[in-house]
Write the structure tokens for this entry.
Amino acid sequence: MKARVYVMLKNGVLDPQGEAVHHALGALGFDGVESVRQGKVIELDLAEGTTEAQVGEMCEKLLANTVIESYRIEM
Amino acid sequence: MKAAVIVFPGSNCDRDMAVALRAAGAEVAMVWHKDRGLPDGVDLVAVPGGFSFGDYLRCGAIAAQSPICRAVVDHARRGGFVIGVCNGFQVLAETGLLPGALMRNARLKFVCKTLDLTVETADSAFTSGYRAGQVVRYPVAHHDGNYFADRDILDRLAGEDRIAFRYAENPNGSQNGIAGILSENRRVLGLMPHPERAVDEGHGGTDGQALFRSLAGALVAA
């Protein structure tokens, strides 16, 4: 079974990389991009029976730094 | 003073740290990240700069989960002294021994130069060799030194006199210009600038000597 974890900077935490991508899109002439936030996707290949709670624990302990990042799990 | 310098794959300031500590009179052991314990009688653990585990996932995140880091956290919880410089600061923040996080520099550039810092407090074994308000010059070399913490933590750090160093001119977007912070018991210091690269005339400056000497002095007495 697979799980996908989306890790994003929390709202209110400045995302300099997203800002740079936003700026570059504007420079390419793509108007109307209001804002850009950049994050990461982590795909996990898991043994059958692994629970979402266990993946949550992985996020809390390692995959996300909850001081600055939030995460969302898709199983 | 007996010191242990932790070595991760990708550490690159470990030997500089050992040289700086030995010059201040410390007995230094190098400790590999897979070791489960620190040598007996260690007073100070130094987590050096570099790019531990290639900065994969987040700077310091993988190192913070290594076997030796559990021993470092235990050492700190027992009241032991710990200094983390640059990547070492990132590792200590990831272990939770110090609050906040080090994010990508606000201008996305790797900053590599010698900067003026203000010593914000002389009330720690690390900074007692300076005067509060004194300006010192240490080199910085990092891509992820942008200190972030929420308002409550920033207020606590300021209120408890735990900001050890600030940048005279903010090079990376750090909140309140924070370059280094102390733990609640003032025995854990994390800072992005490199005092160990300012301990020899050949480095272009010796402002970092006072940090290692005051530490060695305090820990001999202890």
